[in-house]
Amino acid sequence: MFLRKSASLITLATLIMMPSIINARPSIKHFGKNQEVVFEFLADDVEYDKAQIIGKGNVTIINLDYFVTANKAIYDTQTGEITLIDSVNAYKGNSLYLKAQKVKIKIQEDYSFLEPFYLQELQSGLWVDSKSAEFDGSVYQLEDATLSACSVHNPIWKIQASQGEYDANKEWLKVWHPRLCVYDIPILYFPYLSFSAGYQRKSGLLYPIVGNSRDDGLIYSQPIFVAPNNWWDMTFSPQIRTKRGVGFYDEIRVVDDKNQIFWLNFGIFRNTDSYQNTYNLENQEHYGVQLEYSRKDLLTKSHNYFREDGLYADISQISDIDYFKTQTERARERADLQGSLLTSRLSYFLKSDNDYIGLYGRYYSDLEKTSNAETLQTLPEIQYHRQIDSILVDNFYYSFDYGVKNYTRPIGYRAIQQEARLPFIYTQSLFDDYINVSVSPVFYGTMVNYSNTSSLHLENGRYFSHHYVFSGDMDLVKKYTNFGHTLNLGLQYTLPGADNKKGSFTDFFELPGDRQEFLLSGSQYFYDLENVLLLSHRINQAFYFESANQRVGELQNEVQYFYNYRWRFLSSIFYSHSRGKISEATHQVEYKEDFLTGTFSHFIREQFARNDIVKGRFGEANYINAGLKKEFENFNLYANVGYDYKENYFKTWQIGIDTEIRCFAFGIKYVNTINPVLTTRGAEARDDKHVLLTVKFIPLLSSDVKIGN
């Protein structure tokens, strides 16, 4: 491994590390048939005894990417064998790679014998200590081997094996009859183990996931990692739940030429007939597919008219919420799941200096419903936007928007809406740029064509309007002795002009310019002398002069306060004037320091609050959350709780403790959650209580064991 006939020139970095040694000591070079340097032999004192060259004191053997040091070395010129004795250290680059007390190297055969033997993988910290080792080409044959990533002197965990084999080129380690020990206590035995000792991706079995559940029985999942190329890999994970059924999921990752990752996850789990009948589940099979991918400059080039384009996909289609319960937590975390609403998005855009074209699609799934046949989907939406540009005179601009939206579903009315908007904008600064005002006449038109209306008797809608938008805003900045302050005040008034409206428009559609609107907004920010934000405040209030049902819109008020770099306070309130009370509110308190984190939050949303599916605003909610995490010297303690104070039950609570050092981690937590389950009667809540044990022998083994229902 150290001495090869094809050796090249010594790297400059290696020579720099020993300038005084190399320049001042005797040096012997061995050349191959093609006059290339096979190795260089250096020592403080060199003696010649017939066919032997004996080096004593700071012996150094240099070859290719390695150099070896020892207190003594004997080179037999007839057999081509070098014996290094006492404190043998081999270096790769600038780091120690291998240690031994005695090493024998045969130059012509690329063979060596090491006794005792020590090897360490530089990135992971994994080391191997063996009574002896034979090296032939690229493989080490080990006897009585010990391996770990902990301290060499007293490792927390170690694997002891009677025999082993390490392939240096593939960074692959095999051991026979290994025993996993915590300190000196054996806890597991395997007839054979084989695993990567480096960070290169290799195909093979990953460590299994084992658990036990009252309802599901024994849980066993065996991930299989497949990495045939450096640009894609796959993790295939079959699983069995002895009381419930069998299934699998498959996670695929592909890297494109822009280093963007295409992520695909899909799977299926089938319940047994007995499990299906016991819990009266809506679906016997839980299946799904998830996809994530984003990419810029997919088709365009810098010299094209459209100089930029982009694709974004975040798609999650599953049969029901139980699909996530039988898959990995990562699958659920990556989905756009707000409450019970799962959203999938697909978009593509083309952009030039003047024009923008977008193609979008959104699909919503309410996982608490047995069917989403009545949920309106936007598939697809097409948008054209003409970038704002000046026209005729200074400060006079225009833009143009045209869009088509297809609202579709299997059951219920469907609609295709076309919209066009042409605003002209004149802006002017007043009072030395303290105030900016603008006047904008807007021409707007929309057409809605209905289908599948059945008994609703909806008539196709036509609406055209000419309205005016007057706006003004003021930006002020002032620096005081101890802080800085910025203030923005704005107003916007919409005045209807001529309009023409025919046909039906359901509540789903908004018609700009059909009523007088007045919007007041304000925001202010306080900074310290280092421009760190201390406090922010935003407020918005809308007025509708011609609305019979609602003359004043919701008041929106948000305040954030940062105190002493540790405390953060947030209050966000939506107040309904018509109801005379708060429709939605969020309050949060957060404390962070080096070893302590605490959070408290309160969220309320009334049933009458305005729904906005795009922003995830829908449904009633009343709950508080609190969490605490404390890091001690050798372990971490944490707890979380979520409580629905209107329904008077704990949505979730957990408490746990974990500890982690460089080579070992252990954790235990108790979790109690209320999860929805889709039955033939609809969504029903089910209690889930379990204990989760986490054990990690870094970097070899990481396994979670779940005990509960």
From TrEMBL:
CC per GO annotation: cell outer membrane; transporter complex
Biological process annotations from GO: Gram-negative-bacterium-type cell outer membrane assembly; lipopolysaccharide transport
Designated name of the protein: LPS-assembly protein LptD
Species the sequence originates in: Helicobacter apodemus
